[in-house]
Specification:
Structural class: mainly beta
Helix content: under 10%
Number of helices: 0
Shape: globular
Length: about 120
C-alpha cells in the first residue's frame, strides 16, 4: 500500500488548509485511516482517526472543532479540512492506514504511512 499526502503549505493564523491522502496499490477491503503530525523536536502525535465507514471519528482535543476528517472510499482518499489554523499546528502531517475497519489514536496500530506534508502556520 502506498499513501500520497498532499495539500500542505504556508498559511497565516486563522487560515484554512485541506490535506488529502490517496491510497494506492494493494488496498484492503476495509480499513481505517488517521492523521498524525510531528513538529520539530517532538514526537509524532495523534490528530484524528476515521473508521472505514467514516461514521466513527475521534479527534485530539487540540484540534476538535477546527479540523474535520472525511473520506471517499471510492477514491481511496481521506481528507483533513483544517480551519482556524494556529501556529501550534505547524508540523509535518502524516496519514496512516490500518488494515482493520476501526480507527485508533495510537501510531503503532497503523501499518502504512505516507511521506508527510508540511504545514506551516505563521502568526
Amino acid at each position: 500500500v502506498q499513501l500520497q499526502a498532499s495539500g500542505g503549505g504556508l498559511v497565516q493564523a486563522g487560515d484554512s488548509l485541506r490535506l488529502s491522502c490517496v491510497a494506492s496499490g494493494r488496498t484492503f477491503t476495509s480499513y481505517a485511516m488517521g492523521w498524525f503530525r510531528q513538529a520539530p523536536g517532538k514526537e509524532r502525535e495523534f490528530v484524528v482517526t476515521s473508521s472505514w465507514s467514516g461514521i466513527e471519528t475521534y479527534y485530539a482535543d487540540s484540534v476538535k472543532g477546527r479540523f474535520t476528517i472525511s473520506r471517499d472510499n471510492a477514491k481511496n482518499t481521506v481528507y483533513l479540512q483544517m480551519n482556524s489554523l494556529e501556529p501550534e499546528d505547524t508540523a509535518v502531517y502524516y496519514c496512516g492506514v490500518r488494515n482493520v475497519p476501526y480507527g485508533s489514536s495510537s501510531s503503532t496500530d497503523y501499518s502504512y504511512w505516507g511521506q508527510g506534508t508540511q504545514v506551516t502556520v505563521s502568526s
